[in-house]
Amino acid sequence: MGDPQMVMYEEEFNQIQVVCERLIRDANALVVFIVDKNGQLIAAAGEHEHLDTTSLASLTAGNIAATGGMAKLLKEKEFTTQFHEGEHQNIHIQIVGQRVILVVIFDERSSLGLVRLRVRKANEDLNRIFESLLKKVQDPSTGSPFAEITDDDIDNLFND
């Protein structure tokens, strides 16, 4: 059975966004984004306006899936970290808590060592946030994030 669909609350989204923005500064990166393993973009920070983040998110998830297949062939659980070096830009990919994918795009203004160091701290912070989110979603007293939406609200969405 696959992972259940992730529910995101505003509080946790804001915490994730803060981690992404801090990672941009601390790693001197161009772009940071978080993707779920289904290829859905969760959060992004940095100079991402000129990027097709939807395609990048989908391709990143596909890359993780393909690498997971290679890991199984080698009798590994998974490869949690990947690095792709380009002529002008590099991509560091990190699986966070077996739930989401952290992607850092950087250029010559940074280094792989600095990115890896800063990603380690961001990974810890993100793990904590996603653990908290998982507990919140599993707590029956929390209620549905859609509980306050009424039938009238839905009808109003479709009225001119």
Describe the protein's architecture and organization.
With about 160 residues, the protein is an alpha+beta fold. It has 4 helices and 5 strands; from the N terminus they run αββαβββαα. The protein has a 5-stranded antiparallel β-sheet with strand order 2-1-5-4-3, sandwiched between helices. α1 (about 10-25) packs antiparallel against α3. It starts with 9 loop residues before the first helix and ends with a helix. The mean pLDDT is about 85.
Question: Do you know the CATH topology?
Answer: Beta-Lactamase
Average pLDDT over all residues: 87
- Count of DSSP H/I helices: 4
C-alpha geometry: globular
Q: Can you tell me the CATH class? A: Alpha Beta
What's the topology here?
Blueprint: H1 10-27, E1 31-36, E2 41-46, H2 53-73, E3 81-85, E4 90-96, E5 100-106, H3 112-138, H4 151-157
Antiparallel strand pairs: 1-2, 1-5, 3-4, 4-5
